[in-house]
């Protein structure tokens, strides 16, 4: 779910930065899009890091259990 959320944020940010040419008073859509894209990258990276940490813990737990038997 985390990777999907990160990709979604990145796509919304890209659309805001590159796809919309309208100007709204008081809002910089280019800056908002850049922030969304950066947030999407951060979410994807953090999700991958957490997946690797969980995999290592699970692998270590399985090895510890096999030593007992």
Topology:
Elements: H1 2-19, H2 29-68
Helix pairs in contact: 1-2
Transmembrane segments: 31-53
Domain DUF6458: 1-61
Keywords: Membrane, Transmembrane, Transmembrane helix
Task: Report what the structure shows.
With 69 residues, the protein is mostly helical. The protein has helices at 2-19, 29-68. Helix 1 (2-19) packs antiparallel against helix 2. It has one domain.
First CA to last CA: what distance?
36 Å
**Element-level helix/strand string:** HH
Rounded mean pLDDT is 89
Number of strands: 0
Count of domain modules: 1
Structural class comes to mainly alpha
Radius of gyration over C-alpha positions, nearest whole angstrom: 19 Å
Largest sheet: none
Strand-residue fraction? under 5%
| SS summary, helix count | 2
Unreliable segments (pLDDT under 50, ≥5 consecutive)?
Answer: none
State the share of residues found in helices, binned by percent. Answer: over 70%
Q: How would you sum up the global shape? A: rod-shaped
